[in-house]
Structure formats: C-alpha cells, structure tokens
Amino acid sequence: MFSKLSISYKILIFNIITVLFVISLIGYLTFNQTKEFLKERYVEEFQRICELKVDRLASVFQTIENNVDFIKSGDDIIDYVSEAQQVIQNSEGIEELIQQMDKRLLPDQSIYYYDNILLTNPEGVILYASDRSGVKIGYSYRKITRTLKQVEGKETFFGEPYRIRNSVQMFIISPIIDSNDAHKGYLLVLYDVTKNIFPIVEDYNQLGVTGEILLSFFDPSFSNPNEGKIKIINTQRHTDNAPLTQIILTNDPVQISVQKAAIGAKSDYALDTDYRGKTTLALWDKVPNVNWGLTIKVDEDEVYSSLEGFIKQYIQVETIVLIVALLAAILFLNYILQPLKLISKKLKTISSGALPKKVEQGNLSKEIASLSNSINRFIDKSKSELGFINSLNNGQWDSSFEAQNNEDLLGNALLVLRENIISKEKSNADEKWIQESLAGLALQLKLFTSFEEFSDTVLKYAIKQLGALQGAFYVLHKSAKKSDYLEMVSCYAYNKKKFRQFTFKVGEGLVGQIAFEKNVSLITEVPDNYPSITSGLVGEKKPKSLLFIPLVNEGEVLGIIEIAGLKRFNERDIKLAKDMAKIIVREIEILALIKAK
Q1: Residues 6 or more apart from 9 whose CB is under 8 A from it?
Q2: β-strand partners of 116
Q3: How many Å apart are CA 320 and CA 324, to the nearest integer?
Q4: Contacts of 348 (CB under 8 A, 6+ apart)
Q5: DSSP letters spanning 161-198
Q6: Residue 32: its H or E element
Q7: Mutual orientation of helices 366-393 and 307-332 as an angle, nearest 10°?
Q8: What is the CB-side half-sphere exposure of residue 28 using CA atoms within 13 A?
Q9: DSSP tag of 49
Q10: Helix axis angle, 409-444 to 571-596, nearest 10°
C-alpha cells in the first residue's frame, strides 16, 4: 500500500516519522541521563547521612564504653565484689555494704542516665543493683546469665537488645579483673536503647516522605552458624509494629540491604524490595562496637518523582515540534525534491542519534531556507541542552545556558533543575559546616573542669565560628533576698581578653531582656550607646548586629552569650548558635555535677 502513495505523501510520512524518532531519541537520552543524575545525587546524600549517623552512634557507644571503664576503675569495686560474696553466704552485713556502694554508684547512674548498674559474681549472681526494684541480691536471672555466656576476654561487651513491652534495652557488660589478673565478676549497665538511640536514627528530616532508617543485627542459628535470622531493632516508619518484632530470615529474597547491613557487609547501595513490597533505593553500613547494621532507604518512586514534570514538559515540546514538522512537510510538497533530499539526509543523520553540521543555505528557495534554518536552530538548541546536562552531571553549576523564551519548556525546566541542585548543595554545605562546628566545640569542651576556662573557650570559639570580633559570657545568679542578676564572667574583643565587670538584672538592658524572653535574638538596630569594636585592622567601628544566645535548661536560664560583629548574622549563624547553646548547657550540667561530687 505504501508503494502506491505519491512521492509527496511519502516525503510527508517520512519527515513525520523522522521528527518523531529524533525527538523521542533525544528525550530518551535526556531522560536517562537526568534519571541517573538524580539517583547519584540521592546516593551521595545518603552516604553523607549514613556517615553522620554511624559516626554519631559510634561516638555514643564509645562514650558508654569509656564511662563503664571509668565506673569500674578503682579497688573499691573489686573489694566490694569479693566481700559481698562472703557476706551473702553468711547472710549478715549485706545491707551495710549495699549502702556504701550506693554512695559510690548512684551518682554515676544519674550522671550517665543509665537505668540500672549491677555487680555480679562470675556465675551471674547479683551482688549489687543501683535500682533494686524487681531485682533481689543473691539471686541470678536467666537473661543476665545467658548474656554473660557471650562475654569473651576482658573487653567491654555490648549485649543483644531485648524488648520489655514497647521499650528496647540492652546490657553493657565489663569483666571485673583484679591486679593479679583474676576474674572477680562483672559490672553490668542497663541501657535504654529506645530513649537514647532511637531518636538518632528516627530523625527523617532529610529523607523526604518515604525515607527510612533501620537498625538491625544478626542472630545466628544454633544448628547452622551460616544461617540465622535478622532482627530489626527500631520501629519502622510505615508500620505500627513494635520494635524488635520484625524478623528476616537470611534466605529471604526481600530486604537484602538490611541483611547485608546486619552481617557487616561492605558499605554499598542497591535497588531493593522492602517489607511493604516497594522497590527502594537503599544504602547500608555497619555500626562499630555493637556489630549492628544501619540501612537508609527511600522509595524509588520518590527518587524519580521530579521527572514527572520533566516528562510532561517534554511531551508538550514534542507535540509542538511535531505539529511544526507536519506543517513544514505539507509546505515542502510543492517545491523541488532535490532540496528536500538534502534536508532528508540531514534528518537521517539526526535520526541516528548524532547532531550533524548545520544545513548550508546555498541557493535554496526562501521556503526551503526557512526549513533549514529551523533544523539548524534545533541542532543548536539540542547541542546546547545536551551540553548543559553534561555540565550538570559533571558538577559545573555555573555553566552558561539560557532558555530561548518563556515558551521554551525544556530549557526553562533545565534552569529550574539547576537552581534546585544549587540550593540543595548550599543547604548541604551549611549543614556540614554546622555539624563540623558543633563537633569542634564538643571536642574543645571535653577536658575542662574549671568554669572560667570553660567560659573563655566557649566564647572564643563562638566568636571565631560566627566571624565576629567581640563578645561576652554572662552567668545568671539567683538571690533569695535580691533580684536575680546576670554577671559577666568572660569578655573578648578582637581575640584580646578585657577584664571588665558588668552585671544586669533580669529584664534590664539588652542582656536582661534576653534572659527574660529566653529566645535567641538578632539585633540589627544597635543602640547608639553600645560599645564600639576596636582593632588594629578596622579601627573603631560600631557593630552592625548583635546576637544574644540564651543558655536555657528545662525552661531555666543559666546564662547569656553576647556576640557582636561587623556583619549581619545570617540564618546559618543563628541555627549554629541554637545548636551550640544545647551543647554548652549540657557541658554546664556536667561541670556542675563534677563540682558537686
């Protein structure tokens, strides 16, 4: 039937098919490149989140291990275990020993927020418990003795988590060894995983609607050590199941990423099927100290959800181009076939997936020249778009590219995509800077026991990180006879300490007003009587903005940090200030507890 058609209709049909093929091919290539780019961006973001989560968990467990070593240090623990065993056998004098050990261990339980601290003999008989509700001295318990059998050597051991009602807890066990290398018993710490660990992994702020983080561990089978079951520790975001109720067999074809994480496989990512039967993009890693696995996943549909708009826009472009091609083909039917053959040759080259050189105008008629110009513009536009996409794939966000006009849907869509990527990169950079700044602050504050050194270090670090030049640290003093007042305990101006004394009543001046309101405040209209910033580089200038950071603990103000700078502090600076305040308050509490001991 096709052979019976006239050459004019054959040209018309051929041109329509060619244009459709070229547009589809370009759309296919562009779609796949964009799809791969989106997946890579998600993987990079997941790797960053995974590293932060694993590092934070490792830090928590390392801190616990250090705390346990500190608790059991000293001969008094060894002496108690030895004496308690003898006293229990004779049933006399045990209460007096327990009261002595309460004085030793109850403060540690309070400082480190442990649910219970226990001492046992090597067989697991309870010799002491800081919380004796439900625990009897001189008795052994199956859960404890079964956990003790897993302890090997002299190192601190993290037991498997177990569920009590809707709460998950675990034992941290450390052998008690005397100076003669004799095994005297065990120190056990009961740790609340639900309260202390779940908030770290169940923070989904950067994981979208379907993103999820799962903690898991491998429970081997006694009959075959190569087989066993995987237990998911925390609650799942998309179910109402209680923690530690979801079990995966090692030969299960789904949730492969969770299985790999639990057995300690090398960190990687893959497409996986989760417990809902959804296809997900998943990344896994292992958590040191406890041999747990951490899996971060998000639905594949959410990863590529942004492509829906791209597809709709491209279909619109394809429809417009097809209509233009159809009209052009109809007009070309009345002209000489030779110029059409030249155009057809160019279109065949384009249909092969390549972008040819432009059509030479020569002596073409006005109508044929118009078509060749359209093809040349299409070639230029396609090259520009493909070049821009390749630049985005290579991370060259500042590449030059402009949409032809407001109706250039694909060009405008690519520009919007670039802006979204740049915005996310900036957000990630800001968050990374904040996390690094907080880590630096926490590292500097670990070794201080003097509040004066502590306040000097805090103030100097805050001024440096916020790019300011001067600041002050005020501490709130409560008085039964007089009004509460704030006293300056540290002051820095251009990294030079000024020993001046100032006090403010609550509600008096800017400092006193901040203590009353208890909120981080940015002042851009600096009062005329506020002290100028003086340095060898800037001379004497009035600060452009003031940042007041209240240190609030459970609704009670402990102090105020005042920062003055020659710039206006931005949202990133304010977020860092709020996060730093939390760390400073926690360290003040620790200093207070140390001082009380």
Answers
A1: none
A2: 190
A3: 6
A4: 18
A5: PEEETTEEEEEEEEEEE-TT--EEEEEEEEEEHHHHTH
A6: helix 7-71
A7: 160
A8: 8
A9: H
A10: 20
Taking a C-beta distance cutoff of 8 angstroms, is the pair 109, 118 a contact?
no
**Both tokens assigned to 384:** 């520009």
List the pLDDT tens digit at each of the 597 positions of the chain: 656 666 666 666 776 787 777 777 777 777 778 878 888 888 899 899 999 999 999 999 999 999 999 998 878 898 898 888 888 776 677 888 889 899 999 999 899 889 999 999 999 999 999 998 888 888 888 888 888 888 877 688 998 999 988 889 999 999 999 888 888 999 999 999 999 999 999 888 888 899 999 999 988 754 555 667 899 999 888 888 889 888 888 888 999 999 999 998 999 999 999 989 999 999 999 998 888 999 999 999 888 887 776 667 667 676 776 677 667 666 656 555 566 566 667 667 766 766 666 666 565 555 566 666 777 777 767 767 667 677 767 766 566 666 677 777 666 776 676 777 766 766 778 888 888 888 888 787 776 767 888 888 889 999 999 988 889 999 988 877 777 888 888 888 744 444 454 788 888 888 888 888 889 999 988 887 777 776 655 567 888 899 999 999 988 899 999 999 888 899 999 998 899 989 888 888 888 777 766
Phi-psi region of 204 (alpha: psi -120 to 50; beta: other; left: phi over 0): alpha
How many angstroms separate the Cα of 152 from the Cα of each of 72, 184, 223, 290? 18, 14, 21, 14
Judge residue 123's burial from the number of C-beta atoms within 10 Å of its C-beta, 0-12 exposed, 13-18 middle, 19 or more buried: exposed
Q: What is the separation, in whole angstroms, between the first and last Cα of the chain?
A: 100
Residue 205 dihedral angles phi and psi, to the nearest 5°:
-60, -35
User: By the 8 A CB rule, do 279 and 304 touch?
Assistant: no
* CB contact at 8 A, 526 and 545: yes
Sign of CA pseudo-dihedral 134, 139, 142, 145: positive
Quickly list H helices, 358-444.
366-393, 409-444
Residue 126: count other Cβ atoms within 10 Å of its Cβ. Answer: 21
Contacts with 473 (C-beta within 8 Å, 6 or more apart), sequence order: 455, 456, 458, 459, 488, 489, 490, 491, 559, 560, 561, 562
Candidates 409, 355, 346; CA nearest to 379 is 355
The Cα-based distances of 257 to 52, 230, 275 in angstroms read: 19, 11, 11
| Residue carrying structure tokens 């630096």 | 440
Query: Distances in Å between the alpha carbon of 462 and those of 446, 472, 581?
Result: 16, 10, 10
CA proximity to 120, closest of 160, 90, 80: 80
In three-state form (DSSP H/G/I as H, E/B as E, the rest C), the secondary structure along 311-363 is HHHHHHHHHHHHHHHHHHHHHHCCCCHHHHHHHHHHHHHHHCCCCCCCCCCCC
Amino acid identity for residue 513 in this structure: Q
Question: Which among 82, 63, 13 has a CA at the least distance from the CA of 329?
Answer: 13
Q: Of 107, 102, 19, 95, whose CA–CA distance to 70 is shortest? A: 107
Sign of CA dihedral 594, 595, 596, 597: positive
Asked if 416 and 558 count as a contact pair (C-beta separation under 8 A), the reply is: no
Structure pTM?
0.51
Q: Which two tokens stand for residue 532?
A: 């100028």
C-alpha to C-alpha distance for 89 and 137, rounded to whole angstroms: 11
